[in-house]
Amino acid sequence: MATKWVIKDKKKAIYWPSEKMKKKANMSDASIYKKALNNPKKFWSEKALEALDWSKKWNKVYESKPPFFKWFLGGKLNASYNCIDRHVENGNGDKEAIIWIPEPTNEKPVVLTYKDLLEKVSRFANVLKSFGVKKGDRVGIYLPMVSEVQIALLACARIGAVHGVVFSAFSAESLNDRLNDANAKVLITANGYYRKGKLLDLKKKADQGAKGSPVKKVIVIKRGEVKTKMSKGRDYWFHELMEKADPECKPAEMNSESPLFILYTSGTTGKPKGVIHDTGGYLTYAYWTSKWIFDLHDDDVFWCTADVGWITGHTYACYGPLACGATQVIYEGAPNYPDWSRFWKIVEENQVSVFYTAPTAIRMFAKQGVEFVKKHNLNSLRVLGSVGEPIDKDAWMWYFNHIGNKRCPIVDTWWQTETGGIQISALPGIGPFIPTVAGRPFPGTNFVILDESRKEVKKNEGGYLIQKPPFAPGMLRGVWGNPKRYEKTYFSDYGNKLYFTSDGAKYFDKNNIRVTGRVDDTMKVAGHRLTTGELEDAIATYEHVSECAVVPEPDKIRGQVPVAFVVLKGVKESEKITEDIIKQVIEEIGPTAKPKQIIFVNELPKTRSGKIMRRILKKLVINEPIGNTMTLQNPESIADLKKKTNYKRK
Ligand code: PRX
């Protein structure tokens, strides 16, 4: 019988850590919350020293010039040294750092020990240097989950270059926008990748994306026999460069506040914003959240299923676990290849003990039925995690019952690209674990839920989730090239001393928080963040579109899906136009953004000042009363809209 890590409260659907879990956990003392909150600067100062190797200690722990703030000023360190070298120096060079599982089942996993990682990262850092990449330069990364992903990120970190990863399913246009915005001179990509049994071409998209951008050199990882066009003088094969490169590279000494990476995310306008994360604060935060929330021990095998294109892939499939010296599984492909039991096969074969995925994936698995799960022994699992969107009770219970076999705590982790690491969650050694309740602000972070008049809400009343200073060390330090946007997005609704998360929330009890979802024009499609603005921009560039509005529609599996209301000009609606618009969105953003439905309407509902009333469209797609239409400029538009959204009522 496998160990029970969790026990049920007899009266309620609430779970607590078992005595065994409390004993095993890295953190099981609930007084930590109060202690950290009493003096967060002291707490983080101690924690930064304990977690990382600094080549020079800071002389000032925190500085605030609202809305800007800094941590560990004057401190120096290198992120790649902290993720690799020190583990090798401490005698753990032979420990497995990464177990990479290819999608094709006839290929063997690639195992990289910390020693292997050191050699490969050093070689690649020298390659980047030989291409003229210097401290502070930006390097674009357009990679799927190939076995070289962490090597690419850490090689940039080793020489102090700032990486900017672009999700490989994003379009050439998205890549081009981001390379231009970051002014990246080097791009790292792959010739192809496997998805659901097919070898897809990535290089072609990378070429289109690099065209007209500042990129001068492209490094191509060979992942399969795809016919690849290499431009002489610009494109180089990774394996050829690596062979010739020196296997030693001294890590660059970086300021704690030096940017480690930029990661683009959707903002409320069409143009994505480059969220900046620093080195010392980010890594300290990544380390402690990995250590306490995933309760990483020396013998754990951690698997975070996120792609490196997202912040979750940065923090919990690279920096966090590696800084902790953990062993992690990385899987290249689709969860349903060759069938829906693939994930559980990987868990069993690699004895995964901590597993972290998204509610969308859980709902997908639940839909397929438990037979796929039952084929495998999942007794190695100890902690389960969820991320990316609110997890509904059904998905939570299915995850708990069928994957955790009622033995494992579920940490429902709330955070954002901007927060760099998890900020609200239960801790496995403290609990409680409650379906739909993310839990408690991480020790050393401080949250309140306020209403519009900035008053704190009472239990179970809805409000806005706000972070109070000092802001956690993992928080973003700005928006690349656009400090005004940083201020306007995060530090204007509640003044420049409070961080507005754009999420709605409720107090479940005096400690625990239930996050209810975004309150801005952002939607979460299969956990991916998209804004109505970027979708509308993509649709509006189609020549026959006069105007459009996009709203989310709830979806049983994907959480939300986009629905577009479109007014055409000069042509009549047709299937061809619908297909063209959908194609346009896929080309401009990527398949994640594919609208579920294009609804052609005569007019969009507008206020007297001409603003589109998305609120009304949202109500129409969920088939709820639309409320007062008195303030509309064109109330007559409603009859047509109701008729067109009739499909919802059938
Ligand atoms: O709305 C929240 C939701 O995801 C948003 C952040 O999206 P992104 O920057 O793409 O980062 C996702 C991965 C960290 C948040 O503003 N969100 C994320 N996790 C949760 C969540 N909503 C509820 N519960 C969560 N556990």
TrEMBL record:
One of its GO terms (biological process) is carbon fixation by 3-hydroxypropionate cycle. Residues 31-83 form the Acetyl-coenzyme A synthetase N-terminal domain. Its EC number is 6.2.1.1. PROSITE patterns: AMP_BINDING (PS00455). GO terms for molecular function: 3-hydroxypropionyl-CoA synthetase activity; acetate-CoA ligase activity; AMP binding; ATP binding. Pfam families: ACAS_N (PF16177), AMP-binding (PF00501), AMP-binding_C (PF13193). It comes from the Archaea. Keywords: ATP-binding, Ligase, Nucleotide-binding. InterPro entries: Ac_CoA_lig, ACAS_N, AMP-bd_C, AMP-bd_C_sf, AMP-binding_CS, AMP-dep_synth/lig_dom, ANL_N_sf. Residues 90-470 form the AMP-dependent synthetase/ligase domain. Residues 534-611 form the AMP-binding enzyme C-terminal domain. NCBIfam families: Ac_CoA_lig_AcsA, PRK00174.1. Belongs to the ATP-dependent AMP-binding enzyme family. This is Acetate--CoA ligase. It comes from Candidatus Iainarchaeum sp.
